[in-house]
Amino acid sequence: MQALSPPPSSSSLIVGTSRRRRPPTGPLVVHCIHRSYDSVNFPAGVVSSRSDWQSSCAILSSKVVGQEQPPESRSGGDNGPADSIASVNGHKTIDLDLVPIDKAAADGTAAVGGGGSNNGNRPLPMQKPLTITDLAPAPMHGSQLRVAYQGVPGAYSEAAAGKAYPKCEAIPCDQFEVAFQAVELWIADRAVLPVENSLGGSIHRNYDLLLRHRLHIVGEVQLPVHHCLMALPGVRKEYITRVISHPQALAQCEHTLTKLGLQAAREAVDDTAGAAEYIAANNLRDTAAIASARAAELYGMQILADGIQDDCGNVTRFVMLAREPIIPRTDRPFKTSIVFAHDKGTSVLFKVLSAFAFRNINLTKIESRPHRNRPIRLVDDANVGTAKHFEYLFYVDFEASMAEVRAQNALAEVQEFASFLRVLGSYPMDMTPWSPSGGD
Ligand SMILES: O=C(O)C(=O)C[C@]1(C(=O)O)C=C[C@@H](O)C=C1
């Protein structure tokens, strides 16, 4: 288990594989050997004209973004680095059952017209022609979808992956960035990643990664999060000197931990289930973990306290990411997520947000993050000196589909005040009812 640590300054990204300590179900974990922290280059604007923008909105393709990536940082897929990878982590990048040419020629299965000759005595070719379905390694829905999540089995993200895609094959990744890469390199078809929690707030890392990578938000899922305090069997609360978990989980249980009277230091680790796994693997009798009941079961831990989240309505919102956007529709409630940087000027942020208010479009979330490519703007106030303003990127979620004219018009207006704008996705809202997860 790794404690959270600052990223290395730069390097190329390689996706490697390893077995984690004592994985209970034996899955391989996709992990990052080196990470790329090269900044993204944003030119001004996303399309050249307003009419371009409107037609682009209509088909919802964030591919229209004028922000070119350097070739070396382009994701896999058509011509990315994935092309050279046939199989990674036991997952075929493309599951085509192709017969090698030599073998086909030897057993007479070479296709007619494909270079082989049928001399009349041999059986006719058994190979089926390729269809569009064969060429789509990522089925749109249903079973066998490979879904990357951050953490190990028993993590809430694994549960979210199962809620989003009930029959999926969940692929554990040791970092958020690796989950993005797994989709880009066709190791996974989707990633399911947490973006915000009702108590702990936003998971900033994933906001930054959404911008750095070229994946599209294709859905959202909300998961009630019910935390347990757990330790090795026989360990009593009084022995605990340390509580380890994901920083979000620690934040979500802060008051309850204090009320329980634990004299224990809090320590952040990569994920909740990984905390339980670590205690079990190292036989730590002075350490407790905050994780799910499923993690307790998987790693042989005993639950000391159940439902220790500070609020029984504790919910984490996850987004589903894919290589391709979905076509937005109007027959059910949709949400759209955008990110923009606003231009210089007076009240520009107010004007941008008014574009939604005037059209009765409800905003459900706004998050600002440092504009890492241009973090500071110098404002020269004559005779007064030079002020330094911080520059921000604003992430906004609003309740409308990009198939709606009012949403297209709102974004056309935003575009007029924005130095950068990208649609991260337009996707069905998670309307499933959920019940509070208990607790105090
Ligand atoms: O550590 C886990 O189990 C996770 O899935 C991550 C995560 C998060 O990042 O917020 C997911 C849900 C909970 O809010 C706590 C942790």
Automatic annotation (TrEMBL):
Keywords: Amino-acid biosynthesis, Aromatic amino acid biosynthesis, Chloroplast, Lyase, Phenylalanine biosynthesis, Plastid, Transit peptide
Domain Prephenate dehydratase stretches: 146-323
Gene3D superfamilies: 3.30.70.260, Periplasmic binding protein-like II (3.40.190.10)
Pathway: Amino-acid biosynthesis; L-phenylalanine biosynthesis; L-phenylalanine from L-arogenate: step 1/1
Catalyzed reactions per annotation: L-arogenate + H(+) = L-phenylalanine + CO2 + H2O
Record bears the keyword Transferase: no
The keyword Chloroplast is annotated on this UniProt entry: yes
Gene Ontology MF term list: arogenate dehydratase activity; prephenate dehydratase activity
Listed PANTHER family: PREPHENATE DEHYDRATASE P PROTEIN (PTHR21022), PREPHENATE DEHYDRATASE-RELATED (PTHR21022:SF19)
Main function: Converts the prephenate produced from the shikimate-chorismate pathway into phenylalanine.
Cross-referenced NCBIfam families: PRK11898.1 (NF008865)
Protein name stated in the entry: Arogenate dehydratase
Originating organism: Linum trigynum
Taxon lineage: Eukaryota, Viridiplantae, Streptophyta, Embryophyta, Tracheophyta
